[in-house]
Write a structure and sequence with these properties.
Blueprint lengths: L1 H19 L15 H6 L5 E5 L5 H8 L3 E6 L2 H10 L7 E5 L13 E7 L4 H6 L4 E12 L16 H5 L7 E9 L2 E8 L1 E3 L2 E3 L1
Parallel strand pairs: 1-2, 1-4, 2-3, 4-5
Antiparallel strand pairs: 5-7, 6-7, 8-9
Length: 200
């Protein structure tokens, strides 16, 4: 529909404007990973899906760790900044503008680490576990009404993030869950099943 197209383009233009004056990205692990011991547990081989990657701080961190990355964001400006920061971009990086309103791309497979930071779309968040490989990790941080000075449309309500994701359900282990100061974070690990035994 033409209206949907105009809305998408307005969203894209708004984010392009926001990133136009942004500082070049510096690599850093996902914000929900708050200590070195937990960082050491994250994978060093395989692939990462960086959803709504922005200028790509997490993507650069993952590339430096030896991981391949698919990085998606609605803003072409942000993607260009990421590619410039990774120059020359390695073959293990796929970074491209992508509108997530209709969900994630099909047929991209499973990943050892899936990261989504400060992007709120309940349907997209709910779909993320399907992209995590056995033994892999899911790290999500969203804006939250809890402790927020000015909660808005894109803030999750109390426990909404946990309700969307398979925390403490069969096949998953909750590593971290926090909700305060206007943000909610969750770190989950999918079990790897070996000879009938479920292990992290």
């Amino acid at each position: 529909m033409a209206w949907e197209y105009r809305t998408m383009e307005r969203d894209r233009a708004g984010w392009d404007d926001r990133y136009a004056d942004a500082e070049p990205p510096r690599q850093r692990p996902p914000d929900a990973i708050t200590n070195a011991e937990l960082i050491d547990c994250l994978p060093t081989t395989g692939r990462v899906l960086d959803v709504a990657c922005g200028t790509g701080a997490v993507t650069l961190w993952a590339l430096g760790r030896g991981l391949g990355v698919i990085a998606l964001d609605i803003s072409g400006v942000a993607i260009e900044m990421l590619i410039d920061a990774a120059a020359p971009p390695p073959e293990t990086l796929i970074a491209q503008p992508f509108d997530l309103d209709d969900g994630l791309p099909e047929d991209i497979g499973e990943f050892e680490l899936v990261v989504c930071q400060r992007f709120w779309d309940a349907a997209v968040i709910r779909s993320l576990p399907a992209y995590v490989a056995p033994g892999g990790w899911l790290v999500v941080t969203a804006l939250s009404e809890v402790g927020a000075a000015h909660p808005g449309t894109f803030h999750a309500s109390l426990d909404q993030l946990s309700d969307l994701l398979p925390a403490d359900k069969a096949g998953w282990t909750t590593i971290v869950t926090t909700e305060a100061d206007g943000e909610a974070s969750i770190v989950l690990r999918r079990w790897r099943t070996t000879e009938g035994t479920a292990t992290a």
